[in-house]
Amino acid sequence: MEELRRRLETAGLDEASIAAAFGTAPNQEAASLHVRRLAATDPRAVLVQLFLLGEPVRSDALPVDAAELEAAGFVERDGDVVRALLRLTPYTGLLLAHDGENTEHHPDHVAGLNNSARTAATFTVRRPVDRALDLGTGSGMQALLAARHARSVVATDVNSRALRYAALNARLNGVELDLRDGSWFEPVAGEQFDLIVVNPPYVISPDSQYLYRDSGLAGDTVSRDLVRGAAAHLREGGYATIMCNWICHNAGETWQPLEEWVADTGCDALLLAQKPVDPFHYAARWNEAMRDDPDAYVATMERWLDSYERAGIAGIGFGAVLLRRRAGENWHRGYDLQQPATGAAGDHLLRLFAAVDAPLGDDNEVLAAHFALIPDHRLEQRLVYRDDYELTDVNMLLDEGVGLVARVDASALPTLFALDPERPLRAALDDGAEVLPTIRRLYELGFLTKR
Ligand SMILES: C[S@@+](CC[C@H](N)C(=O)[O-])C[C@H]1O[C@@H](n2cnc3c(N)ncnc32)[C@H](O)[C@@H]1O
Question: What proportions of the chain, in percent to the nearest 5, are helix, strand and coil?
């Protein structure tokens, strides 16, 4: 299997060569357009058509032996025509098999790489550990990523189709996984882990149609129970990432409803919240696939909106809870994310934990401390012209981070440019500039470390 993956990658089914050909990493929506720019015989075009778009191709155009793909169960042949039986998506050096749209309406559909799966991967703390758990593994993606830095990985699911995909992906990518069938934490009762990743069926709805989407539990119970369950299965010092949706009963709430979930868990917690979505747009987003059947779409939307109204839902929060088990008095902090998470945010998460663990002292201590900016950050500034150009806003963003944006006071910029970790902050001060609020903000938001 591994050999077959290597041959597919060499033939062009890998992120880098697809991005080089298409100018962007492949996604389902854009791939069909991009594929038109390549010669029909370009092996990358043929592989993208077959395995990303699910279109039939001619066997003589395939850069990999069709009989071998058939023997692996990846395709079926009909004379000269080859059809994919699954999808193959390259992702950060992995090749992931999963279902295509043809099974989208089946209860046991195994989804591929979507925003939530990518964000869960981005929000995972990546450090060498002993034992990791991926609960609700689906295609096995989070488990395979965890195996890069964990000695052993347990991956669970109630969907036997998902477990078959996870087993296939483990073989395809040359990784060993301990796959277990069972609901929520049942298959790991009494066990502890150093890392837990949960990207569950968190959608808040009155339905229980799809295993990957609906938990069958009322409201946001599933997210709450999984946060508390993950806390109970963490070893001291271990981290957990739980992707969540939650109910906001009051306008203006973002991460606040999560505070009660993490109370008395024995864990410190970062509560990472995107801007809540209003119930109508939330229901429309999750039922988009029904749009070609207007009657069913309207009936479903009404059912979902009625259930939200009955539950007094003002908005639906989405984001993640990050836990770290720690003996002693625990804390939690909420963060309003303004951007999607990008790259690998594990180091950013560790800086957020560290900033709460070791808060900055009084102004004199701050001036005497040595600070370093995080490499690969961006400053975005806006200038307004009146009599002259006037700098109004400056924001700092990270290339790899959870999606926080830090406001920088324009008057603090010369000090930031002069920051030198070998010298105290005081040595970088620009005369008369008010820099301390910016320094404190950058430190608390993980844009600045203290030496
Ligand atoms: C949103 S998918 C996430 C899949 C994968 N972890 C990822 O990030 O791509 C949720 C997964 O949870 C599984 N699931 C649903 N109910 C479950 C349960 N009671 N216990 C364990 N897993 C469950 C589904 O079968 C599905 O594979």
Answer: 35, 25, 40
Q: Which two tokens stand for residue 117?
A: 């799966």
Q: What are phi and psi of 198, to 5 degrees?
A: -130, 115
- Given 3.40.50.300, 3.40.50.2000, 3.40.50.150, 3.40.640.10, which CATH number is that of 103-357? 3.40.50.150
Distance CA 76, CA 429 (A): 68
Tokens 């299965």 label which residue? 233
Cα–Cα distances (Å) from 222 to 226, 283, 383, in that order, read 6, 18, 46
In short, whether 200's Cβ falls inside 6 Å of ligand 1 is yes
Is the pTM for the entire model greater than 0.85? yes
26 has pLDDT over 60: no
Q: What is the pLDDT of residues 115-173, one digit of tens each?
A: 999 999 999 999 999 999 999 999 999 999 999 999 999 999 999 999 999 999 999 99
Residue (of 191, 268, 176, 286) closest to 235 by Cα position: 191
- Cβ–Cβ < 8 Å for 244, 334: no
| Atom of ligand 1 lying closest to residue 162 CA | 27
402, 342 in Cβ contact below 8 A? Answer: no
The Å distance, Cα 352 to ligand 1 centre, comes to 28
- CB of residue 138 inside a 6 A radius of ligand 1: yes
* 190-245 residue pLDDT tens: 999 999 999 999 999 998 878 788 877 878 999 999 999 999 999 999 999 999 99
Q: Is 25 a residue whose pLDDT tops 70?
A: no
Quick one: which H or E segment has residue 237?
Answer: strand 234-248
Q: Which residues contact 52 (CB under 8 A, 6 or more apart)?
A: 26, 28, 31, 87, 88, 89
Please give the number of the atom of ligand 1 that sits closest to the Cα of 184.
Answer: 20
- Write the CB contacts of 353 (distance below 8 Å, at least 6 apart in sequence): 268, 270, 322, 324
Distance (Å, rounded) from C-alpha 300 to C-alpha 23? 39
Question: How many C-beta neighbours within 10 Å does residue 200 have?
Answer: 21
- Main-chain dihedrals φ then ψ at residue 421, nearest 5 degrees: -60, -15
Instruction: Give the Å distance between the CA of 93 and the centre of ligand 1.
Output: 23
Domain(s) labelled CATH 3.40.50.150 in the chain stretch across 103-357
